[in-house]
């Protein structure tokens, strides 16, 4: 998948000022999210020797109760002693959590999304040096009347191997605040909607054992509370 280009007209002072404001808004939206967490993550396919790929999600996010908008920082890191080959990060939303944009990444076509997901983006990370990390500013909406989850698989560039997958892991709160300007959500917490009958959450995320990803050649498998996303195509070709 090719990376998206951010629209803009270079060379004018007005455009430069607008770009600066946009950069600040992305940064500010990602502030105060707490420490990064690997919660809900697991190794799927073994990475090359010396490479240890992981992802991080914030411990908390905040959803604007008027616009339903939120911002999430997604980080991929190499905790190993050797540089990785080219990799990509996928950012996929489920249920009430819908990914609307990921800076520097391209949207996954609806036909290629795993069953049960509502949105997704593919980020071309490239080779990742040992001890280094790359972060992506994720924009999303969250329908607080539903439960919502996010999933971060780290794959080879061809999608044949998934070295790590975090999620699908929920963001939510057991103490909704519909009358407040914003609702804070915690990673790994099932959302309790502030609505009549909210004690029974709608089913979101993984609904069956196998969720095909179409042309991307991956699948999402339900194992306990988390899923495992790996390349079925890669296993068939080996």
**Which term fits the overall shape?**
globular
First-to-last CA distance: 23 Å
Helix content range of the residues, please?
10-25%
**Beta fraction of the residues?**
35-45%
Radius of gyration computed on alpha carbons: 18 Å
Biggest sheet architecture? 8 strands, antiparallel
Number of helices: 2
Count of DSSP E strands? 16
Structural category is mainly beta
Could you list the spans in which at least 5 consecutive residues all have pLDDT below 50?
1-31, 197-238
Q: How would you state the average pLDDT, rounded? A: 78
Multimeric state? single chain
Secondary-structure element string: HEEEEEEEEEEEEEEEEH
Q: What does this protein structure show overall?
A:
By secondary structure, the protein is mainly beta. Helices cover 10% and strands 44% of the residues. The protein is built from 2 helices and 16 strands. The protein has helices at 13-30, 232-237; strands at residues 36-37, 41-43, 53-58, 60-64, 69-78, 87-95, 97-102, 106-107, 117-126, 133-142, 148-156, 162-172, 182-187, 210-212, 218-223, 226-231. The strands form 3 sheets. Strands 2, 4, 6, 8, 9, 11, 12 and 13 form an 8-stranded antiparallel beta sheet that branches. A hairpin with a 5-residue loop joins β14 (210-212) and β15. The protein is globular. The two termini are 23 Å apart. The model is unreliable at 1-31 and 197-238 (pLDDT under 50).
